[in-house]
């Protein structure tokens, strides 16, 4: 990493950045402090009247020789990534491969401000041996993530400079890529301070680098003589002058538990949420702000439209109008001129980097809005329809909401939403006129991704995603139909019957294009081959009935451009169950078949895997979608929540009993024909019970992003495995993930308590 040489001695640095807990003039954040241990890391979270931040530190029991520190702030999606390595054996007299001991001093993680009016956080770290500052990145969280998951590669534009230093203090400085002079109000930067606070025996030894090499920063820990009691503390402070966000506290986010117009299940779900006694309520509150929701920490502490909408749909019955309209408004505000909806908002220093890469350096760090996904556009209307037409919280609020003037663009929310409605209808019309593969909605030109499985490998290199075409397109159309019929908005150019007819064609014809049928004997042979390749036990197949003569049917993960199916059993049928209006008996049979024990189905002892390539005639998918792949045979918590919510919704159509339903889902008229088949309903309930047993098997991971499995061939059991330790690219899981908190809006029919998962 290139650094600039500087020999200026730092004067009064500690006094400059030791101020903590002061109130920033432009924020008023509810206080939050909590810790989450996940994936070999300890994660500390803080929100107060100064800032919001997450700090990650490698757990003390990690066998890794080095220790990693991450600081991430939603403000500008800014932060710092630092690796501390054991010093060389010649220097320390220790085995250089021994794990370095670095721990957070209790109570030291606090907000901090500086004399430069920068805002951030500080923390005191205790070192048990000499250490060297390794790779360090200051500024954009996205740059940090690119380094961690990109093979240790970083663009030199993100290099820091060495500013002031002495034997107890050092300042590492990052001026934003596209910024003006320090005297300008547009000046943006970040600083990382390393200091030995009063009473610490630690010292720093700094050797400046040159144009091509970073400085050498050694942390010296004196040897402890018998009877001595010295503490080697290094204070780390990361600050930036990005504007802090205003958080939604638990009272503003969750409905109170008051028994008014609430079902028994909803009242149960609300226990401990609004008063903050439920730890999960505080965690999801950390991710939500007055003008947008963020997706997850530490890697995605910024706006993602898809994540916001899916989380909202699952949590909506438990949320206040303020929270719901915050999320809906954020999505509407970021629509483009065609009506497409923003997938990801890139802000801060990384926005400058993206703008330069797109040939527009003149726009500086103006936010860059990404519209490459095809699913995000389809998730907004179902959420709006559910809120304003079906939930008590949305009653009589539509007129005021849709008349609101947008702050990020010109027009009212109604104007912008009309663009999205017409955009979605325009894309859906060709298939309604000629329902063949070529008229399905595929990936955008030049893009390898388009749905929540946002990797080329995650779609099995397919082009037409299953969830987009079978669930989300018709769901968006049905929501539009309902909004027209309900008089929520004035859609002058649309007719509800026409929209309904377009939706009907999609519902009737799209799923069949994804249907995969494999002869029973062939399916069994492929399954046995997969068990061997995946290093599983063949005895796992004995727990479920073999199919030596019958056929096996399931829905493809995606279709290639020529219509060839990617024959991977998958979890995306959950979208149809949550968003679908006319889910058929045949479709539900496919769901029941998928909710069998893995590897015959998707359910393990530690959750539902999102992809199972066991039946694919293309054997390369076994390696592409293995247990080390981000979208492979791994467990995404929100997918479990989606499936669980969808089963509850479908089964709720068969009964007026609302004691087990947290959400409000009006029973269709007429009710589904399969509801009169008691045996079939029992089959669905059995599948639901199996799913929840699987979910409860990894309840300690339930609010994280994703995890993998380890299999014990001796006991034939699965256990949770950290994805980062398996992934060849270093892809890891966020300790908290917004859409995983959808479980707070669900009820476990097996009797488990979802709010204490």
From TrEMBL:
BP GO annotations: carbohydrate metabolic process
Residues spanning the signal sequence: 1-25
Keywords assigned: Signal
Entries under InterPro entries matching the protein: 6-hairpin_glycosidase_sf
Superkingdom per UniProt: Eukaryota
Organism of provenance: Dichomitus squalens
Protein name (database record): Glycogen debranching enzyme
